[in-house]
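Fold in tokens:
===
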Amino acid sequence: MELNFRKAAIIGCGSVGASIAFRFLQQGLFSHLVLLDANPAKAEGEAMDLSDGMPYGAAMEITAGTYDDAASCALAVITAGVNQKPGQTRLELIAQNIAILKQIVDELTARHFGGILLIVSNPVDVLTYAAWKLSGFPKERVIGSGTVLDTARLKQLLGEELKVDSRNVHAFIVGEHGDSELAVWSGANVSGLDLDDFCRLQGKELRAADMDRLYRDIRDSAQAIIQRKGATYYGIAMAVGRIAECIVKDEHAVLPISVVLEGEYGLEDLALSIPSLVGRNGLEKILEIPLGQSERTALRDSAQQLKEVIGGLSLPPA
């Protein structure tokens, strides 16, 4: 089926899916947005509610639909799954969400879906790998939202700490989108100025204890939000909107999305959140950025945790 590059589907209309749909409406990236949910009435209600705001947003068509409608989409955003509960890790969600993911992927592949799969459901790195295996698609067309949100949290908190616009902060969170993620402090900079140099110019010292505190705040941010309001969705909607923008506009932008590794960083047979070039066809290139020795060790430890989880899954061969 011929792809419509101005058409996208969101599969799963819970708080995350609905928030992403709202973000897409604001951005005006697509001319047609199809909403799917296990509860069709929920998808219909969200489409109706969003459509009411179109006179004040972008000109587009928002409809509830089926997998037949999604078949021609250039992008399918998968948010369906069981929500993370207070005190629950993302990895504990895996059994239920793998089963849901398999149903979705089977429906799309049965219709010869030729677009990009963007996995948002958690645990996103494991589910990205599973979607790649289940779909049989090339890894360029199966990506996850990864640590794009975590990286935004790092930029925001570091900007507050240094009293500088967070948009001028350049740094990455990599590894698992979860408890074993790591901050790449060795490459952090403010508009090209090394972090230490910028701190010196500001008359401020960023100590190891400060960096550890910031990292812990980022790592634990989702749980802190879930404990207060039950779920996170606005931040991830902004992150997914940014990924979609890179795809639609063919930006060749660098984002730490979840990607399948085949030897990069000495790792393979798993997906991790790694800085990558993103454009019209999805993943363009995985970037092997310089890492300090402790960072490289932490990345391997993060990968090992995910590989142990993946090893317990029943997935087809690559």
In short: The longest strand covers residues 268-279. DSSP finds eleven helices and 14 strands in the chain. The chain has a mean pLDDT of 94. Residues 293-311 form the longest helix (19 residues).
